[in-house]
Design goal:
Elements: E1 9-10, E2 13-14, H1 23-37, H2 40-60, H3 86-89, E3 92-95, E4 100-103, H4 109-114, E5 116-117, E6 142-143
Length: 163
């Protein structure tokens, strides 16, 4: 039979000592901290996913669909914002450890993405000596927004690179 001292009694007070081994937990937390300390690969992957989403906007004609051209015969055979492909081909991605960025340096990109009105300007004929202003076109134009830099936020699986 065990004595009171062997059972953990000291001066009629029960003493209990509990030892918990947290080594496995600490190792797991250290591994997580190490994997998340360098976010550059994550931001690079996010920037690539965002760029692909913007390029998909051009491919799909917008998501949601862009409004049709005001003058459908203009640039027959090319999609909206795709007559030369310059805007689509200018989409770039950049990333740091703290941000993922997609953008373009094409000067007319902002007016197409956000819409707006151009300042009054001189319109000269390309061919011939005069312009045909039968439609009463003003020398400033209103451009509707065509959100090509639109990226929808989805939950996605980074391991399979799918949205």
């Amino acid at each position: 039979m065990a004595t009171r001292r062997q059972l953990g009694f000291k001066d009629n007070i029960l003493m209990i000592e509990i030892k918990i081994n947290t080594d496995a937990l600490q190792n797991s937390l250290n591994a997580i901290a190490q994997r998340t300390s360098n976010t550059q690969p994550l931001m690079t992957q996010l920037a690539r996913i965002m760029r692909n989403a913007v390029l998909d906007n051009f491919e799909a004609g917008g998501r949601p669909a862009w409004a049709p051209r005001k003058y459908p015969s203009a640039r027959e055979g090319s999609g909206l914002l795709q007559a030369s492909g310059r805007l689509r081909n200018s989409i770039t991605q950049n990333s740091t450890a703290t941000e993922a960025v997609v953008g373009t340096n094409v000067e007319y990109a902002a007016i197409h993405n956000f819409g707006g009105q151009t300042a009054p300007h001189t319109i000269l004929p390309k061919n011939g000596k005069a312009l045909n202003l039968a439609d009463g076109l003003p020398n400033a134009s209103i451009t509707p927004a065509v959100r090509f830099l639109h990226v929808r936020l989805w939950f996605f699986n980074l391991t399979t690179n799918r949205l």
